[in-house]
Design goal:
single chain, four-stranded parallel beta sheet, 47% helix, Rossmann fold, alpha/beta, two-stranded antiparallel sheet, 9 helices
């Protein structure tokens, strides 16, 4: 477990441990960390087919801008890597937008977000409808074979902001969809 300086920089294990210490419940916090780490390990063991499969993940804003995470240290990437998945090398070299760890993808470059599984979340239902109707989006191989997973906002937030409480939710609500997408 690493400790980093700055707001919201520590891994969830460190945060849980610190909270447990502050509340005088260090043993309970340690047990919770072990339980959640066990759940992650179990999900990985239950899905050996995730190993080495590529993914892309990112938000689509209300105005239709498609973003993809391009940072290997992003919490979403770390979470999915713990399941055996690998961030697509197609996105790791993309220039970062004004949002750290994100690359903005123009409509004509949507093919860059293709991977074994494509995970997107939408800030509005209209943004999802517009993108899913876009002929360029429909041409992405992951979309064509059914390996596109639209994540609801609570699941995407649970993945993006991991905690001892959000990780079990993220596992429950994302792993079955990812497994189904990779089976196609």
């Amino acid at each position: 477990m690493s400790t980093r300086d700055g707001y919201n920089k520590d891994v969830w294990q460190v945060t849980t441990s610190r909270i447990g210490q502050l509340l005088g419940r260090a043993d309970a916090a340690a047990a919770l960390v072990a339980q959640v780490e066990g759940a992650i390990a179990a999900a990985r063991a239950d899905h050996p087919g995730f190993a080495g499969k590529t993914f892309t993940i990112g938000p689509v804003t209300a105005d239709g801008q498609v973003n993809t995470i391009n940072s290997m240290t992003d919490a979403s990437v770390v979470f999915l890597a713990q399941l055996g998945l690998t961030l697509s090398p197609r996105v790791t070299g993309l220039p970062t937008s004004s949002i750290p760890g994100r690359a903005l993808i123009s409509a004509e470059q949507l093919s860059l977000i293709d991977a074994d599984v494509l995970l997107l979340t939408f800030t509005t239902p209209q943004a999802r409808e517009r993108l899913e109707a876009d002929p360029l989006f429909k041409r992405i191989p992951a979309v064509q074979r059914g390996s596109y997973v639209p994540l609801d906002l609570p699941t995407a937030l649970a993945i993006a902001f991991p905690s001892a409480l959000s990780i079990p939710y993220a596992l429950q609500h994302s792993v079955p969809s990812i497994a189904a997408a990779l089976a196609r």
